[in-house]
Amino acid sequence: MNEVEIEYCEPCGLLPAAEKTGHALLTTHAGRIHGLRFTPGHGGVFRVDVDGETVFDKASEEDFDVDVIVARVGARLTPPTIQL
Amino acid sequence: MNEVEIEYCEPCGLLPAAEKTGHALLTTHAGRIHGLRFTPGHGGVFRVDVDGETVFDKASEEDFDVDVIVARVGARLTPPTIQL
C-alpha cells in the first residue's frame, strides 16, 4: 500500500518533470508514501500511479500541474502509518 | 533485473542526498535502469541496492561519494536492453 510510480519518457527528456513531481510527493506526503518508483519509458509517456491506479496520464490530460497530482495522490494514500 | 533502490532516513533529512544519487544514476545509466525506487526510512539509514544487493551502506561506509555509487551500480547492471 501507498506505493507510487512515476513512468516518464526518457528519450523525450521528461526526467526533470518526474523528479519535480517525485520531490513534491516525497516532501508533501512524508511519512505516508512507502515507496516511490521512477520507471524510465518511451513514446511520450508520463503517468503517475498509486498502488497501480493511475491518477495522472499525460496521454489523456494536457495540463501538467504538480499540485493537482500531489492532491490526487494524497487522496488515495491511507492515513499516516509512520510516526515522524 | 536492473532494479535500483535507495533507502534514506526521512527524519534525518537525507532526501536531498537520495535525490542527488537518483539523478546521477538515472542520467548516467539511462536506458539500463528499469526502475529506481525511493524508500523513506528511519534511524540514519542510507543504502543503495541493485536487485537486492547492497552497493553502498552508510552504516558501514562513512564517505558518501555519488560517483563511487554510480560506478558500483553500473558494474552490476546487465548491458543495455532498451534502445535510446
TrEMBL record, chains A, B:
Protein origin, superkingdom: Bacteria
Any Pfam family hit: Rdx
Any coiled-coil regions, as ranges: none
Organism: Haloechinothrix aidingensis
Organism classification: Bacteria, Bacillati, Actinomycetota, Actinomycetes, Pseudonocardiales
Designated name of the protein: SelT/SelW/SelH family protein
Keywords: Redox-active center
InterPro entries: Selenoprotein_Rdx-typ, Thioredoxin-like_sf
Signal peptide: none
